[in-house]
Write a structure and sequence with these properties.
Length: 186
C-alpha cells in the first residue's frame, strides 16, 4: 500500500468504499464539535458521511467500521494508538488561518479543487512552516501543556487572544443558563 491513498476500508472482510475527499473529513469534524449532538449521533454522522454504503452495514459491522473510520480520519494511525489529548485545532474557528497555510504548501487553493484526498491534506499539515498558523498552534500547545511562553509569544498572545483561545461551544440549554447567570450577576 506504499504510495497509495485509500479509497476503501476493509470492514469484517469486505472492502467498503469511502468518501476520501477532505471535505468529508471536515463535515465529520464539524459534527463532532456540535454540542447539541450525542456521542452516538456524532458516530452515526461519521459512519454515514464516510462509508458510501453505510445503510447496508449490519450491527456486527459497526464497531470495526468505527475503528477503521477513526484510523482513516487520523491519517492511518491504529485505533489503539490514539490517546486522548487536548484539541489544538478547531477547523471552523481556524479556517481563515489553516487554508492559507495549506495552500502555501500545496502551491494552489485546495478548496478550489473538486477532490483532494484527506491524507494529502494531512501531508500538507506536516510541511507547514513558519507563519501565523504555526505560531498560533505553538502558543496553544505551550499554554495547554503549562510551558512558559517566550517574551515575543506572550506579546503575540496578548494581542491575539481571540485567535489563539479556542472557543467553548455550549448547547442551547447551557448557553441559556450562562446568559441567565450573567444577567443575575449584572
Amino acid at each position: 500500500m506504499i504510495g497509495r491513498l485509500p479509497d476503501s476500508l476493509e470492514v469484517n472482510g469486505i472492502q467498503r468504499n469511502i468518501r476520501s475527499d477532505f471535505r468529508t473529513a471536515l463535515l465529520i469534524f464539524q459534527a463532532y464539535n456540535d454540542p447539541e449532538m450525542t456521542d452516538w449521533d456524532k458516530t452515526i454522522v461519521m459512519l454515514d458521511c464516510l462509508y458510501e454504503d453505510f445503510d447496508s452495514f449490519t450491527q456486527d459491522d459497526i464497531q470495526e467500521a468505527i475503528e477503521k473510520g477513526v484510523y482513516f480520519l487520523d491519517g492511518g494511525k491504529d485505533f489503539e494508538e490514539i490517546k486522548a489529548s487536548r484539541k489544538v485545532i478547531d477547523w471552523e474557528q481556524d479556517e481563515q488561518i489553516i487554508f492559507p497555510a495549506l495552500n502555501k504548501v500545496a502551491g494552489y487553493e485546495i478548496r478550489s479543487k473538486k477532490y483532494v484526498h484527506w491524507w494529502t491534506v494531512i501531508g500538507f499539515f506536516y510541511e507547514i512552516g513558519e507563519g501565523l498558523f504555526s505560531n498560533v498552534l505553538t502558543i496553544r500547545q505551550k499554554l495547554y501543556s503549562g510551558k512558559k511562553l517566550e517574551k515575543y509569544e506572550q506579546e503575540f498572545y496578548r494581542n491575539n487572544k481571540q485567535l489563539i483561545d479556542l472557543k467553548t461551544r455550549y448547547t442551547a440549554e447551557e448557553q441559556a443558563e450562562i446568559d441567565r447567570l450573567n444577567k443575575l450577576l449584572g
